[in-house]
Amino acid sequence: MTRQPFFYDITLRDGNQSLKKPWNLEEKELIFNKLTEFGVQGIEVGFPASSELDFTACQRLAQIAPDTTVVSALARTVEKDILRAVEAVHFCAKPRIHTFIAMSPFNMKYVLNKEPMEVRRLAIEAVKFAKEKIGAKGDIEFSIEHFGDCAENIDFVIDTLKEVVKSGATVINLPNTVERERIKNFVDLVEKVYIALPKDICISVHCHNDLGMATAATVESYFAGATQLECCLNGLGERAGNTNVYEVAVALYNSGVEVPLNLSNIYELALTVSEMANVKIPELAPLIGPQALAHRSGIHQDGAIKTKDMEKGAYRPIHPTLIGRKDDEKIGFTSQSGKTAIFEIIKDAGYPITIQEAVRITPAVKEAAEKVGELPTRNIIDIYFREVFNVKGDFRLVSFEKLAENVFNLKFFHKEKFYELDGHGNGPVDACLDALRQAGFEMKLIDYRQSALDGEIFGSGAAAMTVIHFEDKEGKTLISRGKDESTIKANVKAIFNGLNLLTE
Fold first, then answer.
1. What is the value of pTM for the model shown?
2. How far is the C-alpha of 132 from the C-alpha of 122, rounded, in Å?
């Protein structure tokens, strides 16, 4: 598919009319400018005949429109509506009059109370009149309201559209005004119209989201021949809303279609529109929702973390930066999560941890999550400190004091038995291990490191952390940590934490 889609935004008309508090002129102008920055090629600025306020807004937006942007005003197939629309938008370089009438058997009979041939006559006359009044520089869009309900009279509709095109319409819009059934049925109707009309006519679709399929209907209609895609920012619109432009744009982008929009504007634009419309973005909204990048399943978290720096993620449709999201994939811990989540959460919070340690504290974190649901990071960090830096077990340190050069006194309990021994060695670690050997507790030290700690992270009292690698009886290595204001005590605490881990 080589043709470029034409994004026709209807936020200022369909979107605005659905708001509990419609926008004023200043707000409409802000949205209009955001739309031109976003790169949409056409903007429906309103329904000028509906009110003086709407007429004034349409007129103002037409006056400030870039020369490259089509500015459209809606009008019923009524001469006074059309004249008002022409008066509102004729200022701009690319004015458009968008007129419409329903052609579904149900609506013609029960809403319009008109015979099909009368509806056809109204459509043709309205298009001719609009074309005459807007002149050569403008174009005419004609919509069949409730086109999605026209399967039983599609031949009548197509014959009417052929006459409408001869009368001057260059854009034929096919709305799924109320989404009622399968996407395929709607798209098949779109394709029939596309095949029947001259190929210089632009086919457009305008889909509502009553069953949650507006994005899919719009995307598939593009591949069936529709070029103009009528969409709304944030999916605003009557009832369940109109097609969400962000979803359509990204779906086409992922399908290899050249999308003429500044996709990196999407996230900021979505937040702005949400605030201005006072319509909250649902937590699970695709692409822009607060939870759209969140993972809580252990399996998903593992895949997300392994691919987080890649363009294609294991569990996301795009890289967040494509739409201007600076927040990365969120890892939340629930009882369904696992060690990988704990590792990432603690590491991202600035604390040292290994996967081995994450495995070790997972049961305690899961137990806490089972009681309250998703655990805040602070709770996970508290468990980390308790389980990593204060390991409970058979060994309990009482004191470790320097007696002389390379001589230290160690006091501790093993179960209920108290020990006091003097250890000798090249430094406190060697001396402590020597005292333990005298008591019958042999430990094989593989590696030892000590480093200063960030006081802001670990608390103002923390100054040093010791990391010791031990080898157990089966030859497996484990890490134990100790922290204290005293570097010597940090060493000994790490050793005793290691003893308790070895004897678990």
1. 0.81
2. 15
